[in-house]
Specification:
Elements: H1 3-20, H2 22-30, H3 34-57, H4 66-90, H5 97-108, H6 118-123, H7 126-141, H8 143-150, H9 158-165, H10 178-201, H11 207-218, H12 235-248, H13 252-257, H14 264-267, H15 269-288, H16 294-309, H17 324-333, H18 349-367, E1 376-377, E2 380-381, H19 384-414, H20 421-432, H21 453-467, H22 471-476
Antiparallel strand pairs: 1-2
Length: 484
C-alpha cells in the first residue's frame, strides 16, 4: 500500500467535489441569496484547498493496485460526506453537525433520507436546495467515475477505482479504455437528466423545481424541493418521473447501446426480469390500494413500486398508513434494487437472479449427485467465481442489515430515543439500500429529525456502506490493507 499514491488520488477527488460547490454559488447569486452564496463559496474554497493540497503534496501514482483502488474509494467517500456537510453548517441551514453529516450522506449516497421538516423546507434557500440535489446527481453515477472521465491523472488504475465504486457486480465497459466508457456513461446520464428537466418544466413545475427533480430522479436520489415530494405535483409530473425512475434503475450501458440497437433492452434477460418485478409489484400495490379511480390507482401502484425498487424514494402516498401486509411488501422491495450498472442501490436484480438460479442448481445436485449443472442468466453461463462473490456479498449485506438494526436499537435506547421496532428496521433497510423513506416516524410523511445524534451517525455509515456495496469499507478497515 502506497500512502502517497492513495492521498494523491483522494486529494484529486475531493478537489473535484469542491469545484462542483461553485455551481450552487452561482444559483445563490442568481436568486440574490448572498449570505448563502458566501457560505457555500467558503466551503468550496476550503474543500478545493484541502483536496488540491493533498494532490500537490504527494506524487502522481503509477498503476493503482486493486487494494489501493478500494482504499481510495472508501476514504474518498467518507471525506466527500464530511466536506459535503460544511455548506449546511456555514450557511446555518442545518446547525447540528450530526444532522448536517446525515443530510450530506443521504445526498452523495443517493439515499434521500432527510432531517428537514415542513418548517425547514419553508426557510431553505434555493442555493442549498440546489446543493442537496447536486450531491445526489454527482453521487448517482459516481463522483469517482466522474473524476476518471474528466481528470487524466486518474486514468491509471481507473478500472480498480471504478470496480470499487460501481453500483453492481461488475462495471460495464463500452470501450477498451475505461476513461472513454466513463465519459459515454456520463453523457447518457446528462442527456437523460436534461430531457427530463424539459418535460417537467412543460408541466406544473418551475424551471428550478424541474432542474432539481431531474437531478434527483436520474440519480435515484429522491430529494425534493417540496415537503410533499411528488405528491404535491400534477399527475403529468408523476408519470414523467415514473418513466425516468424506471430508466434510471436500468443499466446506463444498455441506454448507450440503444442508439445502435433499438431492441437491446428487451434482449437483456436482466432488464426483462427487472421490468417484470417492477410491474408485478405495481400490480400488487394497485390492487391492494384500489380506490375506484382507475388512473389514480394505477399511477399510485406504479409510482410506489418504481420509487422503492429503484431506491429513488420519492413519495406520493404515505405507505406507512397502509395495511401491515403491504408494509411488509414495501420493506421487501427495499432489498431488490435495479439493474447492475444503474444508479439504484440495494442488492440488484442481477444478484438476486444469480442467487435464485444457483440455489435451484444446488437442489438439483442433491437430487442428481452425478449431474453437471451450470448457473445461467438468460443463455449466458455465470462463472463459479462470480456466483461465490455474489453469495458472499449477499451474506455480508444481510449481516450489515442485522448489525445495523442492533446498533441503531442500542444507541436509540441509550439516547432515550423513541423509535419503534418497525421504525428501526425500516430505517436500517432504507439506509443500507439507499432508498430514503422508511415506515412510521421515518416514513414518507415524516423525516429523520427525531433520530438521536448517534443514530444519525449509524445510519450515515450504513448509507455509505450500502452505496459502496460493503467491500470497499470492509477492506478500508482491514489492517492487512495498510501493511507495506
Amino acid at each position: 500500500m502506497s500512502f502517497r499514491h492513495l492521498l494523491h488520488v483522494v486529494g484529486a477527488v475531493v478537489a473535484a467535489s469542491g469545484l462542483a460547490m461553485f455551481l450552487p454559488v452561482l444559483v445563490g447569486a442568481i436568486y440574490g441569496e448572498w449570505s448563502e452564496a458566501i457560505g457555500v463559496a467558503a466551503s468550496a474554497t476550503l474543500t478545493v484547498g484541502v483536496g488540491a493540497g493533498l494532490w500537490r503534496a504527494f506524487p502522481r501514482p503509477g498503476e493503482l493496485t486493486s487494494r489501493e483502488g478500494f482504499a481510495a474509494v472508501g476514504l474518498s467517500w467518507i471525506l466527500l460526506v464530511l466536506f459535503g456537510a460544511v455548506p449546511y453548517l456555514l450557511t446555518q441551514s442545518i446547525t447540528d453537525v450530526s444532522s448536517a453529516v446525515f443530510e450530506a450522506a443521504a445526498g452523495f449516497t443517493t439515499t434521500g433520507a432527510s432531517v428537514l421538516g415542513a418548517e425547514e423546507f419553508a426557510s431553505f434557500s434555493h442555493t442549498m436546495f440546489f446543493w442537496r440535489s447536486l450531491t445526489q446527481w454527482m453521487g448517482g453515477m459516481g463522483i469517482i467515475v466522474l473524476s476518471i472521465a474528466i481528470l487524466p491523472l486518474l486514468g491509471l488504475g481507473a478500472v480498480q477505482l471504478a470496480r470499487a465504486e460501481s453500483p453492481g457486480p461488475t462495471p460495464d465497459r463500452l470501450t477498451p479504455r475505461f476513461r472513454e466508457t466513463a465519459k459515454r456513461l456520463w453523457l447518457v446520464y446528462f442527456v437523460l437528466t436534461f430531457v427530463e428537466m424539459l418535460l417537467l418544466w412543460a408541466g406544473d413545475m418551475t424551471l428550478f423545481e424541474a432542474a432539481n427533480h431531474a437531478l434527483t430522479t436520474m440519480s435515484t436520489g429522491g430529494f425534493s424541493t417540496n415537503p410533499g415530494s411528488l405528491g404535491a405535483y400534477s399527475a403529468y409530473a408523476q408519470w414523467v418521473v415514473i418513466a425516468f425512475m424506471v430508466l434510471a434503475g436500468a443499466s446506463f450501458a444498455l441506454h448507450y447501446k440503444w442508439l445502435k440497437e433499438p431492441l437491446v433492452h428487451f434482449r437483456s434477460a436482466e432488464f426483462r426480469l427487472y421490468l417484470g418485478i417492477t410491474l408485478l409489484a405495481a400490480t400488487a400495490v394497485t390492487i391492494a390500494q384500489w380506490n375506484g379511480a382507475f388512473e389514480e390507482s394505477i399511477r399510485t401502484g406504479l409510482f410506489t413500486a418504481a420509487t422503492i425498487i429503484t431506491t429513488t424514494g420519492y413519495g406520493t402516498a404515505d405507505f406507512a398508513l397502509w395495511e401491515p401486509a403491504l408494509q411488509v411488501g414495501i420493506v421487501g422491495m427495499m432489498f431488490i434494487g435495479g439493474m447492475a450498472g444503474s444508479t439504484s442501490g440495494s442488492v440488484k436484480v442481477y444478484r438476486l437472479e444469480v442467487l435464485s438460479v444457483a440455489s435451484r442448481m444446488d437442489v438439483r445436485r442433491l437430487i442428481y449427485p452425478r449431474g453437471v449443472f451450470v448457473t445461467r442468466v438468460g443463455k449466458s453461463p455465470v462463472p463459479d467465481a462470480i456466483v461465490e462473490a455474489i453469495q458472499t456479498f449477499f451474506l455480508l449485506y444481510m449481516f450489515a442489515f442485522m448489525t445495523g438494526t442492533f446498533l441503531l436499537s442500542v444507541v436509540e435506547w441509550l439516547s432515550g430515543g423513541h423509535l419503534t421496532l418497525v421504525d428501526t428496521v425500516s430505517a436500517v433497510a432504507s439506509s443500507l439500500g439507499n432508498v430514503g423513506p422508511g415506515l412510521g416516524e421515518v416514513g414518507p410523511a415524516g423525516n429523520y429529525a427525531g433520530v438521536s445524534a448517534m443514530g444519525k451517525w449509524v445510519l450515515s455509515a450504513l448509507m455509505i456502506v450500502g452505496r459502496l456495496e460493503i467491500l470497499p469499507i470492509i477492506i478500508l478497515f482491514n489492517r492487512d490493507l495498510w501493511r507495506r
